[in-house]
């Protein structure tokens, strides 16, 4: 932008210079010898050429600096893109692995839940079956205990009757012995 401005300014100065020279030629007419009030030894064309060279060098330097900056930034951006692409690919791979792990865990969870439901059903059936068997056994135990109680009562009653009969027998035996002695005593007289 600065170079373009300088080039335009240089062209404008040349144009003005030519116009002024043409105007002077028109006023004087014919062969005119133009003398300039410039300091001796000053060559305007050389100075302009030097300025042009200087500006062209500056323009070339600016162009090269801009190009170097552009290539540097492009390379830096390419590196960043490569790094980000690699990171993105790594993240995608990780996400895929995580999704696969989640799916496997969900499948395993469903399997475990099915197994749990099956075991709970089996446990409920077993509890119901053993509950019925236990109720049956408890009924049987109660019946046996009832029978034992009845047997015990019967044995006690029979034992009591036996004791009574034993007492009766003992008394009868004593009475028989007494009668025998009495009979023997009568026989002895």
Automatic annotation (TrEMBL):
Gene3D superfamilies noted in UniProt: 1.20.5.170, Single helix bin, Vasodilator-stimulated phosphoprotein
Top-level taxon of the source organism: Eukaryota
A single cellular component GO annotation: intermediate filament
A biological process from GO: intermediate filament organization
Residue ranges of every copy of the IF rod domain listed in the record: 1-189
Family: Belongs to the intermediate filament family.
This protein's UniProt keywords: Coiled coil, Intermediate filament
InterPro entries: IF_conserved, IF_rod_dom, Keratin_I
Protein name: Keratin, type I cytoskeletal 42-like isoform X1
GO MF term list: structural molecule activity
Coiled coil: 3-129, 155-189
């Amino acid at each position: 932008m600065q170079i373009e401005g300088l080039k335009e300014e240089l062209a404008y100065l040349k144009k003005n210079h030519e116009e002024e020279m043409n105007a002077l030629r028109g006023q004087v007419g014919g062969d005119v010898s133009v003398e300039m009030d410039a300091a001796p030894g000053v060559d305007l064309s050389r100075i302009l050429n030097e300025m042009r060279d200087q500006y062209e060098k500056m323009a070339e330097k600016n162009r090269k600096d801009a190009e170097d900056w552009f290539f540097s930034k492009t390379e830096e951006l390419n590196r960043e893109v490569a790094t980000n692409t690699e990171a993105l690919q790594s993240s995608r791979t990780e996400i895929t692995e995580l999704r696969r792990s989640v799916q496997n865990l969900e499948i395993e969870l469903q399997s475990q839940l099915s197994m749990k439901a099956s075991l709970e059903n089996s446990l409920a059936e077993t509890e119901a079956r053993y509950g019925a068997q236990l109720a049956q056994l408890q009924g049987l135990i109660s019946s046996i205990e009832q029978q034992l109680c009845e047997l015990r009562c019967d044995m006690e009653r029979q034992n009591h009757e036996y004791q009574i009969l034993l007492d009766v027998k003992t008394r009868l035996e004593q009475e028989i012995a007494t009668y025998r002695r009495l009979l023997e005593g009568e026989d002895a007289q």
